[in-house]
Specification:
It contains 14 helices and 13 strands. Helix 6 packs across helix 11, helix 9 crosses helix 10 and helix 9 packs across helix 14.
């Protein structure tokens, strides 16, 4: 099959969501192209929420140590697809060398120095001082397309929307009575981030306080999380169960174990009026669904990971700010970030 393009984007689910506008622009401009996406095994579920690729291939770039055999395996993937074009988000000289060794005629990547300008057919200037989706999207200039400000978009299938609707009708009194004001809280972050010492979590005590305050305002709160989030979810539920206050417990639901896939989580977030989370993959899902998002940031730049739009708000270092201003990153979510500040910001977004 001719007219085949290989896109390479190694990273987590959040990175794959941020990369989607690249694929969308290619698909729109060249609908006849067969697009293959090469990514890490941990991110293969991106195919559940996007129909922009014709094929997904996997390579574990995080394997340690990577030996010569592994690089030969990667090179075989590149050489065996009969691709006419390869576009990669990698920004090191090694990436340029691998793309050149692949023999693919058209090679597009970021300019990582003189070697990349020799080995790539188009080396695109790397501008990290912008929203990451815009940074990735700059690559399409290598295909003669215009750079522009973008926001990722994902799709929720009828199947997964039905799964979550059935869950809500089963456990939510308000869902059976009509559509309540509903907030999804996702407190977790990936194990890989924790291994790297990138601490994005907030205390279970703070999450429990926030949930109680929202319930007092007659807001239905759904606590969500995947297998990596078991400990923090259980600790939050424990603190709520130990609390003797007279809040309406019918307004608190746990979706832990109910979201069987990334697509289920996306469907649940899509049925909410607001997502409150840390800087993590669920944040990017909320953005790609165009849902109001309140994100708690620690060690990363908010303006690099949230687009500039009034429905996307971040809290960073104890300050209540819109996502149009960059702050210096912290080592973790600040202890000064009090739950009352998060609560007031959540109400502000719900009222909007």
């Amino acid at each position: 099959m001719k007219n085949k393009l290989l896109a390479i984007n190694f990273g987590g689910i959040g990175d794959e969501i941020l990369f989607l506008p690249v694929l969308a622009s290619i698909k729109e401009a060249f609908p006849e192209k067969h697009i293959t996406l090469l990514l890490e095994p941990r991110s293969k579920s991106i195919g559940e929420i996007s129909n922009l690729t014709d094929e997904i291939k996997l390579f574990d770039i995080k394997k340690r140590p990577l030996i010569i055999k592994d690089y030969l395996e990667l090179l075989q993937i590149l050489r065996s697809g009969d691709y006419e074009t390869v576009i990669s988000s990698g920004s090191t000289p090694l990436v340029a060398c691998l793309l050149f060794a692949s023999g693919i005629p058209e090679r597009i990547g970021f300019d990582s120095g003189a070697l990349s300008r020799i080995l790539l057919t188009r080396a695109i200037k790397l501008n990290k001082n912008q929203y990451a989706s815009n940074m990735y999207h700059d690559l399409v200039q290598g295909l003669g397309l215009k750079q522009k400000n973008v926001i990722p978009k994902i799709k929720v299938s009828e199947k997964h929307a039905s799964n979550m609707q059935s869950f809500l009708e089963r456990v939510s009194t308000k869902a059976r009575q009509g559509h309540p004001v509903r907030v999804v809280i996702h407190p977790g972050t990936s194990k890989l981030a924790i291994k790297k010492g990138i601490i994005k979590t907030w205390s279970a005590e703070n999450w429990a306080f926030l949930i109680k305050q929202l319930i007092l305002d007659d807001v239905e709160v759904i606590l969500a999380g995947g297998p990596d989030d078991r400990e923090v979810v259980f600790e939050i539920v424990k603190k709520l169960n130990n609390d003797q206050s007279s809040v309406n417990r019918n307004l608190f639901l746990s979706a832990y174990g109910e979201t069987k896939s990334l697509a289920d989580l996306a469907a649940l977030i899509d049925k909410s009026d607001l997502l409150i989370c840390v800087d993590s993959a669920p944040m990017h899902i909320g953005v790609a669904l165009n849902k109001p998002v309140l994100a708690l940031f620690g060690p990363t730049h908010p303006a690099h990971l949230l687009p500039k739009a009034s429905q996307f708000k971040f809290l960073h270092g104890g300050m209540d700010t819109l996502s149009t201003k960059i702050h210096q990153p912290q080592k973790a979510i600040s202890v000064d970030l009090q739950p009352d500040i998060v609560y007031r910001s959540a109400l502000s977004l719900l009222r909007r």
